Amino acid sequence: MSCIAATPAPPYYAVIFTSLRSDDLTGYVAMSAHLTALAAQQPGYLGMESLDDAHTSITVSYWQSLDAISAWKRNLEHHEAQRLGREQWYRSYKIRICRVERDYAVGVSM
Amino acid sequence: MSCIAATPAPPYYAVIFTSLRSDDLTGYVAMSAHLTALAAQQPGYLGMESLDDAHTSITVSYWQSLDAISAWKRNLEHHEAQRLGREQWYRSYKIRICRVERDYAVGVSM
Q1: H or E segment to which residue B6 belongs
Q2: What is the pLDDT of residue A108?
Q3: How would you write A43-82 as a 3-class SS string?
């Protein structure tokens, strides 16, 4: 993770995507990089924080509204990546859609 | 991260703690393990997912209510850890308190 996402004052929305990967990661790294860049171009995108280790990942993306999250979920390239994820890359995953009620920070430009 | 947290049906609450560490990590690993165990004993605790790399961490803890989160924030040992975190271990961090509105999973026992 390169930095803490510079999100605006709440309320806004977070998508917490937690995953355990399978052993077949063909195409995974390239698609992951592509999707990260593509997400950043979507209307209502506010930022992303992501870390992974050998087998698991946590990716939190931040959005202005539930509508922005729904539109990103329906994006055609993202939709294809979701299919590959379910069928090939992930052993299991969980997605949580959250409303950020409040936040506070230390040492971060708000 | 060992597994995806087995949280109940929404609504419930998430605390997303994103941090960039300093170079002085004296006592950090022991306190981190202690706090993880201590959090799991708190009323309203539902689970935790955490990953870190050399300099950054994402820890998401799940709770039944905002009251449970407030009580954990005020816990004396946690309070001391927060002070050490601000003064010593973290270059910067951000904490987001979220209401999980909905979730879905693939390959996870719900």
Answers
A1: none
A2: 80
A3: CCEEEEEEEECCCEEEEEEEECCHHHHHHHHHCHHHHHHH
Give dist(CA A47, CA B98) in Å, integer.
16
**Distance (Å, rounded) from C-alpha A49 to C-alpha A29?**
16
Are B4 and A93 inside 8 Å of each other by CB?
A: yes
Confidence of residue B110 (pLDDT cuts 50, 70, 90): low
Q: Tell me the whole-structure pTM to 2 decimals.
A: 0.95
Note the pLDDT of residue B3: 87
ipTM over 0.90: yes
Largest CA distance in chain A: 41
How far is the C-alpha of A99 from the C-alpha of A47, rounded, in Å?
A: 15
* Nearest alpha carbon to residue A16 among A45, A42, A48: A48
Pairwise CB contact (< 8 Å): B58 & A52 = no
Euclidean distance between CA atoms A99 and A50, whole angstroms: 18
Does B1 contact chain A (CB < 8 Å)? yes
User: Between these two residues, A93 and B3, which has the higher pLDDT value?
Assistant: A93
CB contacts < 8 A, A to B, total 129
Tokens of B11: 């609504």
Give the C-alpha distances (Å, rounded to integers) separating A48 from A55, A58, B43, B45. 20, 11, 30, 26
The helix (run of H) or strand (run of E) holding residue B81 is helix B76-84
